[in-house]
Amino acid sequence: MHLIFKALFFCTGLVYSMGTQMLVLPTSAEELSIGSHPTLSGLFSLNPALIKANEKHPYLSLNRGNWLGDVSVSQIGYNQMIYDNVVHLGIRYSGVSDLEFREEIPQDDPSSYFSAFGLAVDASTAFKYQNHKLGLSLSYVQFTIFNEYSRGISFDIGYAFEMKNNYILGIVAKDIGKMSKLDSKAPSLPNRLSAGISKKFQQNEYMNTIYGSLEWNSIPSTSKLYFGNHFRWNRLELLFGYATSNQTTETSFGVGLNLNRYRVTYGTRFGSQDIGFPKLLSFNIILP
Q1: What is the model's pLDDT at position 15?
Q2: Residue 218: per-residue pLDDT
Q3: Minimal CA–CA distance to 52: which of 268, 288, 228, 286?
Q4: pTM for the whole thing?
């Protein structure tokens, strides 16, 4: 009984560090490399107003990588245009499977192993009226640790305004919702508010977009400043990012190759605390 009590106590702490963090992890190599900007469009972007799709063919996105602490991260998504509106359906997963049960006394080997994971099933849509875009996203969220689990609903709403001279303004409120109890207490969702601006420059076959944004996160209650750059030349893409808060600074980079129907992107990030190097590989396909 003492061992099980210790495990459940540890589980409750872990869900706050890994479980709720799943909702703020980048879902693509592009977002990992450039940063979490509310003006960055994508197949499942931070701002649901800027999710994109091909006008004639649906998109399939596959993302796989590792986060800090050897947490495995995966995402699969499907995007399609329906009646001039973009619709996204996706599943996100993050987890770790080799957590150890140990007594308070020293042990050469753990008593047993257990796993912890988070799962989110997303449905999003984006509407456009002239230069205004509005996006809504609804997610079913579940965190499971050992034999305890918590379930809930998360809601996102985003807005983007396309200005003259290729400027875009964006604002998004994310992860608004409620979770059921885990053991004796319900986990709190990491409510976020992000606002930013981007500017695209284009000359012949060269295209460059710069990003800047500020994000506030309720867990912990702190702000983070993001800067990013996305350079495209012919089929090659180079991505760079920088983020800073009161506690950390992060630099990131990525490289992508666009092959018409197929697009492959790899990204990684380096933090000032030297606790690991998150990395993601993204594969996007335009379906027939």
Answers
A1: 43
A2: 87
A3: 286
A4: 0.86
Give the C-alpha separation, 39 to 156, whole Å.
Answer: 15
Alpha carbons 161 and 172: distance in angstroms, whole number: 12
In angstroms, rounded to a whole number, what is the distance separating the alpha carbons of residues 131 and 113?
53
Helix (H), strand (E) at residue 4: helix 2-14
φ, ψ of residue 36 to 5 degrees: the values are -90, 85
Residue 63: other Cβ atoms inside 10 A: 26
Closest residue by Cα to residue 86 from 41, 57, 51: 51
* CA dist., res. 211 & res. 200, Å (int): 9
Domain 2-286 grouped into CATH 2.40.160.40 = yes
User: How is residue 29 written in tokens?
Assistant: 């190599």
Instruction: Name the residue type at position 113.
Output: Y
Residue 222 pLDDT > 70: yes
pLDDT average, residue stretch 233-238: 94
- Pairing between β-strand 132-145 and β-strand 112-129 as defined by DSSP bridges: antiparallel
Classified as helix, coil or strand, 145 is strand
pLDDT at 7 over 50: no
d(CA 133, CA 61): 22
Rg (CA), the chain: 20
Q: Is the pLDDT of residue 172 over 90?
A: yes
Residue 215 — pLDDT band, cuts 50, 70, 90? very high
Which comes out higher in pLDDT, residue 147 or 81? Answer: 81
d(CA 139, CA 156) in angstroms, rounded, equals 8
Residue 87 burial class via C-beta count within 10 angstroms: exposed 0-12, middle 13-18, buried 19 and up: middle
